[in-house]
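Example with several molecule types.
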Amino acid sequence: MSNKYSVLIVEDEPLIAEDIAGYLKEYGFEVAGIASNSELAMMYLTTKSPHAVLLDINLGDGPDGISLAASIRGQFRIPFVFLTSFGDKATLDRAKATMPAGYLLKPFNGNDLMTSLEIAIFNHMHTTGAFDQEPELDAINVQLPVELSAREFELMLFLRQGLANREIADALFISVNTVKTHLQNLFIKLDSKNRTEAIFRISELMKGKGMA
Amino acid sequence: MSKPRFGSFSLFFFFISLRACAPFAPSKCWCRFSGKIVFLRIPIFILFGFGISPFCAQGQDTAGGSASEKQVELAEVVLQMAKRAELLAEDSTTVAFEIAIEAYRMALKLGDSEALQRAGYSLGLVYEYRSILDSAIQYYEHSRLVAERLNDPTGVYEFYTCMGIACFYQNDFGRAIAYYDIALAGFESLGNLDRQSKLLNNMAVVYRVRKNYKKAINTYQRSLAIKTQLNDTIGLANSYVNLGRAYYYTDQLDESIQSYETASIYYEMKGDSINVAVCEAGLGIAFLDMGNTELAGRYLRPAYEVLKSKISMDLMIVVSSLAAVERIDGRPQTALNIMLEYYDAVLEWDRLDSRKAFEKQLAYVYADLKNYERAYFHSQNYTMLAEKDAGEAKMRLAEEMQTRFETREKESIIKLQKLELAESSRQKQVLYLATALAVLLFGGAVLFGLSKMRNNRKLTAQKAITEAALADREVLLKEIHHRVKNNLQVVSSLLSIQGREITDEKALEAVNESRNRVQSMALIHQFLYGENNLKSIDMQQYVSQLSQSLFDTYKVDHDLVQLHVYVEHILLDIDTAIPLGIIINELITNSLKYAFPDGREGNLTISLKENNAKLSLSVADDGIGIDKVEPSNISFGMKLLNAFKSKLNAEIFIDGKEGTEVIYSIATYKRA
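Resulting C-alpha cells for the full complex:
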C-alpha cells in the first residue's frame, strides 16, 4: 500500500467527479476510485479500503448518498464529507443525522474541499486514538532519507494537535511566514504535499512502515 | 366534473395488501437463523478489518470453541429481540424501537451477518411504523446489502419489496414502483409465485393510488391469475376486493359489485366478519352510485355496525355513504348526526380522500337542512381540498417521471412535463378564480344580508386558493434552480479539468477566470435554492461568500490583504443579482491580481448601498493603483463592466491614482 491518504469519490456526475479527482491529486491525495452509485461505492469501500469518502447526495435512481452514509458509518468507520448541491434545511437535517465529518455545498472550490477533508481526517485520527502515542524524533529520523530538524519536529507536534499556522506562530513567537517555510521543508522531507499527508506519514513511521 | 362520488378510498385495503408481502411475516419465521454455525465463522470483515474498530479488541478477547458457542447464543438473542420488536411495533413503537435498536447494536457488535440482516429489517419496520420513512428505507437498504453479501437472493428481493413499501408510504410512488419492479423480476427468476402475486398486488395498489385504474385492474388480474394457481383463498379474496374498488373508480359498477360479492363469499368461508363488512361497504357505495338507496342502505348498515368500533378508513367511507343514503331518503337530520359524530375523527385522520367525501356530504346535508351558511362553508372546504388533490396528482406524476426514465430521455421528458405544469398552473389559476366566483355567486344569492361576514370569507377562500397555487409553483422553481446550479457546476468542473491540461500561463488564467465567473453565477442559484425565499438574493451574504471564495481561489493570505465588506441588507431580484455578481467578481479579481504585487500588504473594501434610488457598488483597494497596471491585462474585465452598462443604466467612475476605487452606480435595478 502506498503511504498516501486515499479518498473515494461518490458522485454521479462524471465531469464533477473528474474535477474533484483532479483537486485531490493536486493536493497529494490518492483517488481510491470514482463511484457513480451506491453499489459501486460499496464495492470500492470493500476492495480498496479508502481512508475517507467524499459523498454526493443525489446519486440518480438508486439509493442516495445519505443512505450510503449510514452504511459507511455502520460498517466501515471511516470519515465522510458530503459534497452536494442540496442546501435546503430538510436535506441538511437528514444528512446531519448520519454524523458526517463535513458538509460542503456546490459550487465548491479546491480550497474548501481540501480544508474540510483535512479537518475530517484529522478529527477521525484523533477519535480513533492515532495520536495517543507521542512520536520520537530519533525513531522517525532513522527511517527518513533526510532527517528532520528539532524545530521541524516541534512544528510537526503542533500539527498533530490540529493547530493552524497562526496559532503555531504565536506559540513559538515566530512569524507566520517562518512557520510556512518550516512546514514546506517538513513536507519535503516527509515526501508529503499537505499537512494531512504529513500527519498520516508520521503515524505510519511510528508503526515502522517508513521503509517502503 | 364527473358524477358525484361518495367516498374515495384509495388507501382502503392497504394494510392487508401491503403487509402480506413483507418478508418475515409471522407465518414464515426465519428458521435459517437457528443452529447454522457455518455463517458465524464469517465475521463481518468490515467491522473487524480495521484496527480502529472499537469492537476489535472485544472480538479478539473471546477465543476458541466457547466463543463461537456464545456467538450462537447471542445471535439467537438478537433474533428473539428482533421478533419481539416486530410484534410490538403495532402496539407501542417506542418500546419496539428501543428493542430493535438494541438488537441492531448487538448484531453489529456480534458481526453476525444474518443477525444483522434480521435486526436491520426489524429496525426498518419500526421506523416505518413511526413514519420515519427515510430511516426505514435506509435500514432496509442496509439489510439488502448484507443479504447480497450472504448470497441470499430471496432476502435481497424481499428487502427491495420492503423499500418499495416504505417509499409508497412516503408517497414516493415512482421509486416504489421502481423497487417493486426489481423485486418482481427477481422473484420471477426464482420462480416464487407466492411473492410474485403479492408484489403484483402491491404494485396495483400504487397504480390505484396514482389513480391509474386501468393499469391497476390489469395488475390485479395478473395477481389473481397466480393466486388461482396457488389456490390462495385469502389472497384471492383480497384481490377481488381491490378489483372491486378499481372497477368502482372506472365506473364499471356491475363488475365492481360482482368482484365484491365473490370476495365476500371467500371471506365468509373463512369466517372473517370484518372483511365481509368491508365488502358490504363496497357493495353499498356501488349501489348508492347506481341510485339504489334501498340496497345501499341494506349493505351499509350492517357494515357500519361491524366497523364502528374502530376508527378506520373503511369506517369513514361507510359513514359518509350512509349519510348520503339517509339524506337522499329524506332524513337529513339523521345524516347530519352520524357525520358530526365522526367529523373530528376525520379531521384528525387527515386523509385527503376521506375529508373530501365528508366535506362534500356535509355541504349537501346542510343545504337540505336549509343551513346555507354551513353548507357554503363546507362546499368551500371541499373545493379547496379537490384543488389540492389535483395539484398533488400532477406533482406526483412529475416525480414519477423523474425516477422512471433514463438520464437523457428523463431530462427531456421532465422538461416537457414541467413546461406543461407551468402552463397548466396558469390555466389553473384562471380556473380557480372561475370556480371560486361561481361558488360565491351561489352563496351571494342565498345569503344576501350578511354581506360583511361573507366578504371576509370570500377573501380568505381566495387567498387560500392562490396560496396553494403559489406553493405548487415554488416547488417547481426550486427544482429548476437546483438543476441550473448543477449544470453550472458541471460547466465549472469542465473548465477546471481543462485548466489542468493547459501549460500556457495566459490561457490557463483565462480558463480559471471564466470558471470563477461561472461559479459566481452558480452561487446565486445556490442562494435561491437554499433559502426559503425563491425570488430574492440577500446581497450581504452573497457578497461575503463570493469575495471569500475568490480570496481562496487566488490563495490570498488574509494577513497580507485584509478584506472589508460593507454591504447593506439589500434583497435583489435575480435579474440584477447575476450581472452585479459578475461585476463584483471582475473588480475583486482585478484587485487581487494586480494591486498587491510581490507580497505587498493592503486592504480590499467592498461596499454596496442604496442612495437616491441608485444602487452604488464600490470596490476599493490601497494597492499600486490601476493607472500603473498594464491596460491589456484588465481590458477583458473592463469590457464586461461596460457590457452591462446599458442594461443596468449604470455609470462607472474609476479613481486609480493612489490605490484603486471603482464605483459602479446603477440606476435600473430590481429589488425583490
